[in-house]
Amino acid sequence: xxxxxxxxxxxxxxxxxxxxxxxxxxxxxxxxxxxxxxxxxxxxxxxxxxxxxxxxxxxxxxxxxxxxxxxxxxxxxxxxxxxxxxxxxxxxxxxxxxxxxxxxxxxxxxxxxxxxxxxxxxxxxxxxxxxxxxxxxxxxxxxxxxxxxxxxxxxxxxxxxxxxxxxxxxxxxxxxxxxxxxxxxxxxxxxxxxxxxxxxxxxxxxxxxxxxxxxxxxxxxxxxxxxxxxxxxxxxxxxxxxxxxxxxxxxxxxxxxxxxxxxxxxxxxxxxxxxxxxxxxxxxxxxxxxxxxxxxxxxxxxxxxxxxxxxxxxxxxxxxxxxxxxxxxxxxxxxxxxxxxxxxxxxxxxxxxxxxxxxxxxxxxxxxxxxxxxxxxxxxxxxxxxxxxxxxxxxxxxxxxxxxxxxxxxxxxxxxxxxxxxxxxxxxxxxxxxxxxxxxxxxxxxxxxxxxxxxxxxxxxxxxxxxxxxxxxxxxxxxxxxxxxxxxxxxxxxxxxxxxxxxxxxxxxxxxxxxxxxxxxxxxxxxxxxxxxxxxxxxxxxxxxxxxxxxxxxxxxxxxxxxxxxxxxxxxxxxxxxxxxxxxxxxxxxxxxxxxxxxxxxxxxxxxxxxxxxxxxxxxxxxxxxxxxxxxxxxxxxxxxxxxxxxxxxxxxxxxxxxxxxxxxxxxxxxxxxxxxxxxxxxxxxxxxxxxxxxxxxxxxxxxxxxxxxxxxxxxxxxxxxxxxxxxxxxxxxxxxxxxxxxxxxxxxxxxxxxxxxxxxxxxxxxxxxxxxxxxxxxxxxxxxxxxxxxxxxxxxxxxxxxxxxxxxxxxxxxxxxxxxxxxxxxxxxxxxxxxxxxxxxxxxxxxxxxxxxxxxxxxxxxxxxxxxxxxxxxxxxxxxxxxxxxxxxxxxxxxxxxxxxxxxxxxxxxxxxxxxxxxxxxxxxxx
Length: 928
Known about the structure:
By secondary structure, the protein is mainly β. The chain has five domains: about 20-165, Jelly Rolls, CATH 2.60.120; about 180-305, Sandwich (Jelly Rolls); about 315-420, Immunoglobulins (Immunoglobulin-like, Sandwich), CATH 2.60.40.10; about 435-760, Glycosidases (TIM Barrel, Alpha-Beta Barrel), CATH 3.20.20; about 790-925, Jelly Rolls (Sandwich). It has eleven helices and 62 strands. Helix 5 packs across helix 6 (about 585-605), helix 8 runs parallel beside helix 10 (about 700-720) and helix 10 runs parallel beside helix 11 (about 745-755).
């Protein structure tokens, strides 16, 4: 996400600049002359009057567009605006060098946000767009804050003047990448309501009332790819995240990366790996730091450094304390996990458990030294297990005190919940479901992504509290599916909306549907429908492909008794109507696709198909487009809205989601174009997938989910709605989940049942785990990271596996063989923290057959702190003659080939139907 910024006049020291020069200005001094500015959207009565451009704000997206001009773009240009309005909030300045786009030349990503005061008084705003990569600027657009629903048409604005000011080229730009603020402020200045003060400890920063207050460097010329880590030593009193910000000579605008922080009043060194940031290239023109995302926070920044490696002494945090199993019964052996993470720059090598306090009735049940911890390397999570015993149920807390260099300063604690034993007889199979009675049809999105240990590995590492009651299970197992069916229907869920993948005939992630559900003993209890996740590459869909995919649905799915229907028509949900529109040249083409499917379904004896579009806009205009294309309803996968209430839109409380859900459903209903399958939120925290870069909606609790359910039932009853939707049950990586797990047990499901279902006279069926009836465990083994740097496939696949878009993976005659089934095929292997700097080359010996045109292969890598990304890769041209060739990849030339490597991903080509054979992959010290 692009970082957004307004700079005050004091931000950049005056001595660095020549005399500012106004390049162009609009003053609106002549009555009736708007000087080419027009009311482009949701603005009425635009006029030049009283020396200002004035108008009335009529709806949710108000903006005015200026006349065409031309100036050469520079990073050191500023747009000054004198404005008054009685609606405050987020405003945007769009800019462009073209008139050629669907939005009259403007496009997302070419805008700078700034906060507007809505007190009806004049204020001056100085906006630095950093638009230098445009080359020239020819148009501006001013987007004003959005009024509340009840105030539409009542709010006004006036613009006294708009000026584009050139500050010239700054002198004295530093290439230094280290600032010691205990010595001086070094030209760093405050912005957006921040204040700074030099103290003996460092630069003291106060946020004031803004969650987005920050400090900014003087102008820089610092090479970024030579410094892939940012290190900040500071202490703060509140907040959960900081942000490092940068402007690159290679890119327009500001960018940012999030840094988790500890608001404990102690100095910590926070290191963040920026090697996967595609905009961390070129030279830094400027840096910024938001020390805390909390209004009113005070931070002291002692030191900020850009470096090749993480900095500072070991700094260990105990990120998790808890029992390992999702449900623990009294009388059984159990283990307590302590998850340790070191964010410092050095290994913590002498850690000890100084004290362990357990609830009454729980004791340590292991001999030997359980107090000494293994060394914790920088950014390597380590688990320490202590075996416990308890003969009776317990609800309490484990409390741990650590000692050693870099040990946590404060004790770590976590819940210890030991449930009563059920003493149930052993079952031969999953007990028969007893579906709950309800007046509602509740459908839940289901993501089929959990058939390998590799998929579970990030969840196990980052969020052990998410461990399902089924364990780290193989989703292709029909017995696991029967447990899922039993638990779902016993708590009021009647159908799953299953993520389903098709691209030009290539399908994947079918294991749950085809292997588990299709073979489940109890599938008759739970209906399902396709949610076509058409994340298709451009120009990969056509009318013929629509016929093929529809034929597949008709031949394989629609005839099932369990296939979900609305008005006796099979339901198909489509993730991206826009992708269909893109490939078919617009709405008329997209409509032809759905018409083809309708005709085929009717010819096959069905009444038609109920198409539901994913994406649930509030604006009637895009809804009308969807209706014109043939959709009869809309829905959304996640409700993550906060209606502008979040102080930090990348890190905010789930309470805002719960508070705003009812209002959002109401606004959506008022659009009155298409009905909506409303979405009951199940959370979001995607750190297992994206690490610190993820969006975190924290503080999800059972009472907050109950509020969402109660509001949904109230809304449904008020509007005579009987079909409701749940956000995903099992997006464990994205943090959207309701299925029984360690964090909540069965409580989320029980909440759903309590709100929507009628309790039978004999009471609810007991919620039981597989182990309670002698079944399971279903855990896949943990990923075994290979202690190897070369693979010759002489004794099997040697850890390599299919990631996507391949079929027929096998080893024959000393080579790994497979056929690609998509334009984005990939295989991969996990590594055991290989030191990248020891191996500046990767050697690949392979052949490709049936490749229809010249193509490239691509090797990606992931480090301990840097995920797979485009910048962490190297491409090479393929020799397209069907023979084996040896390719030498100089990966060491890429500055991001560094640190400890965790995995490789290899994309052998960009076409489907290609036969690939790989005889050898090896990391090498030389090019031989």
